[in-house]
UniProtKB/TrEMBL annotation, chain B:
Pfam families referenced in this protein's UniProt entry, alphabetically: HATPase_c_2 (PF13581)
Domain Histidine kinase/HSP90-like ATPase positions: 30-130
Coiled-coil residue windows: none
Top-level lineage group: Bacteria
Name the record gives this protein: Anti-sigma B factor RsbT
Residue ranges of the TM segments: none
Length: 124, 144
């Protein structure tokens, strides 16, 4: 599969390496939802830097992953959306709530740290 | 170039082909992404609603502008009400119904021809105005 999934402390980092088929997108969603429970994960970071197309299907799948994750007590952050991909998403006027985004891995991790430590938990 | 569409792997091939041709025609990276995304949407529509079909992608060279034309055809059940299918949030099969209206917003020209039980043809075009430098080069070397 063209996605590398690493565990880093309480977080899972899924790094997408290439353009994914619809089937691979759904597989990623299910794999992450499963591993969330097994490893007591509190946050998921999905790095989409290598994706040069995020269409309505991918956006919807990421959104449903974020909702599933939240129902299981963790948060999801999408990092690395390319500028031209962001422009395409805006033209679609997709509603991506409750997806959180950050510029890169470091920023994504900082965001999760704020939510998952002490009083910050649950905010945002 | 015609890409046969039947599985989600073909969808990846179709958008890669669209991007490659867009770049070859001098479109910006952003426009190439918009084109690839629009192709992805209509290719998925083919798979979901008709099962299979084909997408033809070609360049159009006019004196003042270059275009990229995408023609997506299927022999599926067709769309009963094309106007309704082009409205946001409408979909014959769940989801957000963003496929057609989304693709339309990403391209410059967009036309759907369909009738019940007669398949669907979507023709969409994106244009790029040629720069003054290109026009100058073209004038100096006729046929270029």
């Amino acid at each position: 599969m063209s996605v590398a999934i690493l565990q880093h402390g309480d977080y899972l980092i899924a790094s997408i390496q290439a353009d994914l088929t619809d089937g691979q997108v759904l597989e990623l969603r299910d794999t992450l939802a499963d591993r969330l429970g097994v490893h007591r994960i509190r946050g998921i970071i999905i790095d989409v830097t290598a994706m040069d197309v995020i269409d309505s299907f991918v956006a919807r799948s990421l959104r449903s992953l974020a909702i599933t994750t939240r129902l299981r007590g963790a948060e999801t952050v999408i990092v690395g959306i390319q500028p031209d991909v962001a422009i395409a998403l805006v033209q679609f006027s997709l509603n991506l709530e409750p997806l959180h985004t950050a510029l890169d891995l470091d920023e994504g991790q900082a965001l999760l740290d704020r939510w998952t430590t002490g009083a910050g938990r649950g905010a945002g | 170039m015609v890409v046969a569409i039947a599985t989600d792997v073909d969808l990846v091939r179709a958008r890669a082909e669209g991007r490659a041709q867009a770049v070859a025609l001098g479109f910006t990276r952003t426009d190439a992404t918009l084109i690839a995304t629009a192709i992805s949407e209509i290719a998925r529509n083919i798979i979901v609603h008709a099962g299979q079909g084909r997408i033809a992608i070609r360049g159009l060279q006019e004196p003042e502008r270059h275009g990229l034309v995408v023609v997506a055809e299927d022999d599926g059940p067709g769309i009963r009400d094309v106007e309704a299918a082009l409205q946001d949030g409408r979909s014959g099969r769940g989801g957000f119904g963003l496929g057609l209206p989304g693709a339309r917003r990403l391209m410059d020209e967009f036309e759907v021809v369909s009738a019940q039980d007669a398949g669907t043809t979507v023709t969409m075009t994106k244009w790029r105005v040629r720069t003054r430098l290109e026009l100058l080069h073209a004038r100096r070397s006729p046929g270029g």
